[in-house]
């Protein structure tokens, strides 16, 4: 391939793309010939892949460095991401804990104190991931504290990987125990009642941490402190069905272990229970008898809590917007008793237990509302909290009247409240120096999709912004039953503060409006998600908020797929496209790491009917030579072992090959970075600034 010149405007030197080799690779899939000239980029350690990444970054870095708004936006994102911040406290074993950052630290830290007041005054530093690596890329990604022993089991991830290492320390003394468990993922350590053993999820060791091959079956195992990892006891596995995973829950009274299990990312699950007991040596033992609570894979289920043998379960059985039921574990075949149920106006998003009470989370028009009821679901009372907002975290104990709730919204960064079951509401002080955003206005709009469905979205802008049209950033996700709710983002807050309009779409496939909304945008219905996005874009233009020459589209992961589909199906709609760590090769996604787990959402390319659905919208395979695509900045991480970088690398190479216009196509590959979790604050600030500067340049946003 000859070098290709692309220029975003006449006043700027053309972009000279690197020479990229194309191999003669052709697959025949279900009778269809599929070319794959950049197959070699699937090996992240191959010399050609490394040379490709270096060459692309050598083009992209000076381009982004030279954008006029880049330094101003970098100062804004850095200020927001390095400001002091504090999460939601919780109590465990008589001590209070919180994740916080005094500011300027790459990674958040864990603090502990004997009282809440002492914790808010600073507390004692218990765990500092900033000491784990010189470059700040080692992160704390999970933790669990035993009520019985006060021991803390924590999970560490390096360079953005999903692989985790588990360690243990004593919260009273800070002593680190000689425990080092490897090749773990997904499930946080779950302590058993003896305080000397816990459950975790592990996989067979791969060839290396960078291995992108599809993973084998995992297993839930029991680890006893002081024993080698290879002696851990198997609790649950389905080796013949590698896509299945189990999530453990242990009752507060130590009587029950309940496992919810599902294939891959399927929101439906089965439920089984096992009795816990103590042997002659005082060790917790998991009973061998399996009590089946839900045996069929038909609906979503999640454990709320228990009261003796009575299990509280949030279910979507006969309730597409959720209901709370009780199940008698002594007689699981008996009829369930419904305590609460969602309806057309509200989704039962979650429930927690507090002393003689239930803490209920409703989702109403894609925003959270907190209600406290008695244990029967009656005597409801709503604490006075700001809104519309979403809950970042909530903490309660079945035997305590103390509740902590964290809230975020488009209008504020983070506010934390201490509630009591008797009705008290107190806002905890924010850490000194916590940054917030300028006054904004957030509106709810409704767009119309291709099939007539009304699609909600939030439009956010600076309160003093005049009439449009304005440069606008449209964000969406639309998948995996994940709700997109009002929340603070340093990237979005910087865009709005700079004078841009932000539009956040609630697309089908998400979890904002219950089971039916999710199912309407998955499998063979995935095109509806893209159509919903186009409806939102066209509504913004028709209502005068923006123009197609001022509209940028952005999404991450499954949202990166959304952007890839949008720019290949409707390239004329966008002034700029920002696909980030996207799933872009829909014919081979299931062959890498955990990709097979997504077949419950996307369907499998191995199935002929779904292959044809996937081929029809797969962004990589929709790229056509001689087509004019919008200015595009593709972002990925070279250590992403969830959505492997091959998706972005192959898509970027093919897009540069096909691009007919002078609009630039750039690949930004972050080294020592993964899917996004645990990225150092300054590295994340730089990524956001690069994306915003690119969007600002191509939508005409002038940042002063």
TrEMBL record:
Signal peptide: none annotated. Transmembrane segments: none annotated. Keywords: Hydrolase, Protease, Serine protease. GO terms for cellular component: cytosol. GO terms for molecular function: oligopeptidase activity; serine-type endopeptidase activity. It holds the Pfam family Peptidase_S9_N. InterPro entries: AB_hydrolase_fold (IPR029058), Pept_S9A_N (IPR023302), Peptidase_S9_cat (IPR001375), Peptidase_S9A (IPR002470), Prolyl_oligopep/macrocyclase (IPR051167). Residues 486-700 form the Peptidase S9 prolyl oligopeptidase catalytic domain. It comes from the Bacteria. It catalyses: Hydrolysis of Pro-|-Xaa >> Ala-|-Xaa in oligopeptides. GO terms for biological process: proteolysis. Its EC number is 3.4.21.26. Belongs to the peptidase S9A family. This is prolyl oligopeptidase. It comes from Nakamurella alba.
């Amino acid at each position: 391939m000859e070098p290709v010149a692309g220029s975003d405007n006449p006043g700027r030197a053309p972009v000279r793309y690197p020479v990229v080799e194309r191999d003669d690779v052709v697959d025949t899939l279900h009778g269809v010939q599929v070319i794959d000239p950049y197959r070699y980029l699937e090996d992240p350690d191959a010399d050609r892949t490394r040379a490709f990444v270096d060459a692309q970054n050598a083009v992209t870095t000076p381009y982004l460095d030279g954008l006029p708004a880049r330094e101003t936006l970098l100062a804004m994102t850095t200020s927001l991401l390095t400001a002091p911040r504090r999460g939601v406290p919780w109590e465990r074993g008589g001590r209070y804990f919180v994740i916080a950052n005094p500011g300027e630290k790459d990674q958040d830290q864990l603090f502990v104190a004997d009282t809440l007041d002492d914790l808010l005054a600073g507390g004692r530093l218990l765990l500092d991931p900033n000491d784990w690596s010189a470059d700040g890329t080692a992160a704390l990604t999970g933790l669990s504290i035993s009520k019985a022993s006060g021991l803390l089991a924590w999970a560490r991830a390096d360079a953005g990987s999903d692989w985790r290492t588990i360690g243990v320390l004593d919260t009273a003394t800070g002593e680190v125990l000689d425990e080092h468990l490897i090749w773990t993922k997904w499930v946080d350590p779950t302590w058993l009642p003896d305080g000397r053993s816990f459950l975790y999820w592990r996989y067979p060791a791969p060839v290396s941490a960078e291995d992108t091959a599809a993973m084998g079956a995992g297993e839930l195992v029991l680890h006893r402190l002081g024993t080698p990892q290879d002696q851990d006891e198997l609790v649950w596995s389905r080796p013949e069905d590698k896509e299945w995973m189990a999530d453990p829950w242990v009752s507060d009274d130590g009587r029950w272990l309940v496992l919810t299990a599902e294939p891959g990312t399927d929101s439906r699950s089965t439920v089984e229970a096992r009795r816990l007991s103590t042997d002659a040596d005082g060790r917790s033992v998991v009973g061998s008898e399996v009590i089946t609570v839900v045996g069929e894979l038909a609906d979503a289920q999640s454990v709320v809590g228990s009261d003796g043998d009575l299990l509280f379960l949030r279910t979507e059985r006969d309730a597409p917007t959720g209901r709370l039921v009780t199940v008698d574990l002594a007689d699981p075949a008996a009829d369930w008793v419904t305590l609460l149920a969602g309806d057309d106006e509200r989704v039962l998003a979650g429930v927690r237990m507090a002393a003689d009470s239930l803490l209920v989370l409703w989702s109403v028009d894609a925003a959270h509302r907190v209600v406290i009821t008695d244990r029967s679901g009656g005597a409801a009372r709503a604490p006075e909290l700001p809104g519309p907002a979403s809950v970042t975290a909530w903490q309660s104990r079945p035997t305590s009247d103390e509740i902590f709730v964290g809230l975020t919204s488009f209008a504020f960064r983070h506010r934390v409240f201490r509630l009591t079951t008797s009705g008290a509401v107190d806002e905890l002080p924010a850490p000194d120096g916590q940054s917030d955003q300028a006054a904004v206005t957030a509106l709810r709009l409704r767009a119309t999709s291709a099939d007539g469905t009304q699609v909600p979205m939030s439009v956010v802008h600076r309160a003093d912004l005049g009439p449009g049209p304005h440069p606008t950033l449209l964000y969406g996700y639309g998948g995996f039953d994940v709700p997109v709710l009002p929340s603070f983002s340093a990237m979005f807050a910087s865009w709005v503060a700079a004078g841009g309009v932000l539009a956040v779409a609630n697309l089908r496939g998400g979890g904002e409006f219950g089971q039916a909304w999710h199912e309407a945008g998955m499998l063979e219905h995935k095109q509806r998600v893209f159509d919903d996005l186009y409806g939102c874009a066209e509504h913004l233009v028709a209502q005068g908020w923006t123009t197609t020459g001022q509209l940028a589209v952005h999404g991450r992961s499954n949202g990166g797929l959304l952007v890839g589909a949008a720019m290949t199906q409707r390239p004329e709609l966008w002034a700029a496209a920002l696909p980030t760590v996207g799933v872009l090769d829909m014919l081979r996604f299931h062959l890498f790491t955990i990709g097979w787990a997504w077949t419950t959402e996307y369907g499998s390319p191995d199935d002929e009917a779904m292959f044809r659905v996937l081929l029809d919208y797969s962004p990589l395979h929709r790229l056509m030579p001689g087509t004019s695509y919008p200015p595009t900045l593709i972002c990925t991480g070279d250590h992403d072992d969830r959505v492997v970088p091959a998706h972005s690398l192959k898509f970027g190479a093919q897009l540069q090959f096909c691009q007919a216009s002078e609009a630039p196509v750039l690949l930004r590959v972050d080294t020592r970075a993964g899917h996004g979790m645990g990225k150092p604050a300054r590295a994340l600030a730089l990524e956001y600034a690069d994306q915003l500067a690119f969007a600002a340049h191509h939508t005409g946003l002038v940042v002063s």
